[in-house]
Amino acid sequence: MLAESHFTRIGNVDFQDSKRMVSFETGVGGRDNKINVRLKTTVVNMKDGSEQYRIEVSMIGVFERNGNSQISTDEEFGRVNGAAIIFPFVREHIANIALKAGLGSIILPPVNFTKVNKDKTSNK
Questions:
Q1: Which residue of 50, 71, 79, 100 is surrounded by the most CB atoms within 10 Å?
Q2: Side by side, which strands form the sheet with 34-47?
Q3: Residue 48 Ramachandran class (φ > 0 left, ψ -120 to 50 alpha, else beta)
Q4: Structurally, how many domains does the chain consist of?
Q5: Measured between alpha carbons, how far is 27 from 98 in angstroms, rounded to an integer?
Q6: Per-residue pLDDT tens digits for 69-97
Q7: What is the spatial distance between Cα 124 and Cα 48, in angstroms, rounded to a whole number?
Q8: 50 Cβ contact partners less than 8 Å away, ≥ 6 residues apart
Q9: Of 77, 53, 50, 79, which Cα lies nearest the Cα of 66?
Q10: Domain range for residue 71?
Q11: What does the radius of gyration of the chain's CA atoms come to, in whole angstroms?
Q12: Distance from chain centroid for Cα 19
C-alpha cells in the first residue's frame, strides 16, 4: 500500500548531461507471524549541481509467515524478498508521476535487492 509520495521539479528540466540517482531504504518490523516491510525509493535528477526533480515514494507490504522457511530472519526476508515484491508497485507509481509531470518515460530497471543489501552492508 502507498504510504508516502512526494514530487518536486524545476520549471524547465534539461535531461542533457544530467545524472539520475536512485536510492533505497528498507524498514522491517512485525510480530507473531506478520512481517511489515516499508520500501522507500528516491529518484533524483541532477545537472550542474542543481536538483532538477525529486520523486520519493514509500510503500508498505504486509506479509504472513506460514510454516518453516529457508530464510533465517524476518529482517532478511524484508530487506530482500519483501522489497523485491513491493518494488514493481513503486516502479509503476514513479512512472505514472513522471508522465503526469511531463517528464516523459521514467522506467526504473529491475533491482537485485540481494546485491543492494550486500553493498550497503559492506559500505558500513
A1: 79
A2: 2-9, 50-64, 34-47, 19-31
A3: left
A4: 1
A5: 25
A6: 777 788 989 999 999 999 999 999 999 99
A7: 29
A8: 10
A9: 77
A10: 2-122
A11: 16
A12: 18
What's the rounded Cα separation, in Å, for the pair 120 and 23?
11
* Residue of 124 and 102 predicted with greater confidence: 102
Output the pLDDT for position 72: 73
- By residue count, the chain amounts to 124
Confidence band, pLDDT 50/70/90 cuts, at residue 122: low
Burial 4-18 (b: 16+ CB within 10 A, else e): eeebebeeeeeeeee
In 3D space, the residue among 21, 9, 84 whose CA is nearest the CA of residue 52 turns out to be 9
User: What percent of the chain has pLDDT above 90?
Assistant: 74
Q: Domain holding 48: CATH number?
A: 3.10.420.10
